[in-house]
Amino acid sequence: xxxxxxxxxxxxxxxxxxxxxxxxxxxxxxxxxxxxxxxxxxxxxxxxxxxxxxxxxxxxxxxxxxxxxxxxxxxxxxxxxxxxxxxxxxxxxxxxxxxxxxxxxxxxxxxxxxxxxxxxxxxxxxxxxxxxxxxxxxxxxxxxxxxxxxxxxxxxxxxxxxxxxxxxxxxxxxxxxxxxxxxxxxxxxxxxxxxxxxxxxxxxxxxxxxxxxxxxxxxxxxxxxxxxxxxxxxxxxxxxxxxxxxxxxxxxxxxxxxxxxxxxxxxxxxxxxxxxxxxxxxxxxxxxxxxxxxxxxxxxxxxxxxxxxxxxxxxxxxxxxxxxxxxxxxxxxxxxxxxxxxxxxxxxxxxxxxxxxxxxxxxxxxxxxxxxxxxxxxxxxxxxxxxxxxxxxxxxxxxxxxxxxxxxxxxxxxxxxxxxxxxxxxxxxxxxxxxxxxxxxxxxxxxxxxxxxxxxxxxxxxxxxxxxxxxxxxxxxxxxxxxxxxxxxxxxxxxxxxxxxxxxxxxxxxxxxxxxxxxxxxxxxxxxxxxxxxxxxxxxxxxxxxxxxxxxxxxxxxxxxxxxxxxxxxxxxxxxxxxxxxxxxxxxxxxxxxxxxxxxxxxxxxxxxxxxxxxxxxxxxxxxxxxxxxxxxxxxxxxxxxxxxxxxxxxxxxxxxxxxxx
Length: 662
Prior knowledge:
By secondary structure, the protein is an alpha+beta fold. Helix content is 48%, strand content 23%. The strands form five sheets. A six-stranded antiparallel beta sheet has the order 13-12-11-16-15-14, sandwiched between helices.
C-alpha cells in the first residue's frame, strides 16, 4: 500500500508538543506528512489564506485565542479542510463538545501516539472527503463505499444491516447478500456488547456527533477478530436517518500487542526470579520449576533427574496429591529426552502416541501435550525440565527460549550443588587430617600435604563455579540480545537492553571472584570502575562530555552484598546516563563508597550534576522496573536509601557490612 501524502498545518504554541507531534508523524508507516507550523491563530490565518492544506491539527489554547473561540475562528477561515483538535483535557465532555462545535476529531494530548495520529488523520480525511462526495453525488459515495480498503457498513437505528462494502464482507466472512438484514449485535463479541450499546445510545440521543471504539467481532467461521470502529448518523435514501460505520481490521495489531505484553511479563518474572536466587539449590530448583510452569501456562511442571536406576522428580509445581515422584525411568517421556538426544521435545495428542501406555502419568492424569528440555551438569545429561498440559497447545519459539533459559539455570544450580558437595567433602577430609595429625606426629608432613591438596581442590572448585556462573549469565545475555533482534518496538528493545545490563553486572562479580586470590571478598573499587565504564560504552556517552569520578575506599564485600550492591550501582548509573544529561548536556557522574569503622556500616553515594530526578515522581512508589529493583535490593541489603535533588541527583545508600561466608 502506497503512503498517503498529507499536507498538514499544525497550530501549537508549545515547542515540546510541536516537536513530539512532528516526530510521531515522521515515524508513520501509512502517512507521508508535510508539516507546516504556526504558534498563534493570526499566524495560522495568514498561512491558510495563502496555502491549501489537507488537514489542520490545532491546540485549543493559543496566545491569541482559547477553547471554543479557537475552533470557531478556524471554522470561519476554512470551510473545505478537516480540523482535528488537540486538547490537554482528557474527558468525554470536552471531546463531545468539540465534535458538536464542528471539529472532525478531538484527541487528548495524553493519548498521542503514531497509531492514534494515523487513525485520526486517515479517518478524518477519508471521512471528510466521503461527506463532501455524498453532498455532491450519491454515485461518488457509492464508489467510495465499494472501493474503500476500510470496512464500511450502513444500518438502521436498531443496528440491522442495510448494506456492507466488500472490505467489511472480507473482514467478517459473510457475503453481502447473506449479511443484509442481520443485526450487528449478532456478530459482536459478548463482552463488548455493553460498551458498544452505550455509545450507540449516546449517538441516538445526540450526546455525541460520532464515536470511536475498539471491539471484537465473531466471523462466519467462529473466529474472533478486532476492529477499530467509527460510527455516525447520516441521511440515507429518502433522507432516512441511518448509522454509518467504518471498521478497520486491527486483529494483527492486537495480536502483536498481546504477544509483547506476554513477553514483557515473562521478562519481568525471569528477572525477578534470577534476582531472588538464594544459596539453597533445592529451593532454587523448585522455584525455577514453578516459574517455568507459570510462564508456559502448564497444568503442572517437573524437573526429573536420573538418580541411579530411578527417575526422581526433584523439582515439582502443581503436581496432584497422589503423584509418584520416584519411578523406574523406562517408558517415561522425560527419560527419552535425557537419553535419546532430544534437546527440546514437544509431543501433542499424547493419547494417540505410544506414551499413552508406556508413561503411567499420561492416562492417569489425562495429559494431552508435553514440552521438555534436557538439563546438563558439567556437560553431562542428568535430567529434564518439562511442562505438561491437560489440553492441546501450540508451542512457539519464545516458549522454547524460556524453557531453555530455565533449564540452563537449573543446570547451574546442579553444578553448584556438586561443587558444594565436593567442598564439604574436602572440608571433612581436612578435619580428619587435622585430628590425625594431633595423634600421629610422625605423619605430620603427609597430612599437611593432604590438607594443601584439599584446599587447592576447594579453591579450584570455587573458581570453577564462579567461572561457569559467569559463562551462563553471558549465555543468558546473548539469548536476550538475539531475542531483541526480532523485536521492532523500541520500548521492548530498551527493556531487553536493561536486562542485559543487569545480568552483566552480576556476571562481572563472578568474573572478579574467578580471577581474584581472595574468593570470599571482592575489590569493589576496581569492580565499580569497570562497571561504570561499561555503562558509558553501552550508552555511547563520551567521558569528555560526562566526567566520571570513582572514589571508593579499600572496601572488601562478600558476594551476598556485592551482587545486590553492584545491581544498585548499575541501575542508578544507567538511569543517570539515560535521563540526567539530555541533548549533549555536560556534567559529572560520581560514585563514592566508604566504611564507618565504629558501626561497621557502608555508605554508598551515586550522584550527578544533570537535570535532576523529576520532583513529581516518588522513587519509592513507581511503576518502573529499575527503581522497583533498586528499592528491593536495598531492602535485601537491610539498608536505607535517600534521595537529594538540591544539586542534580544524589542517592545515598547505607547498609551494614555482612560476611560472605557463615
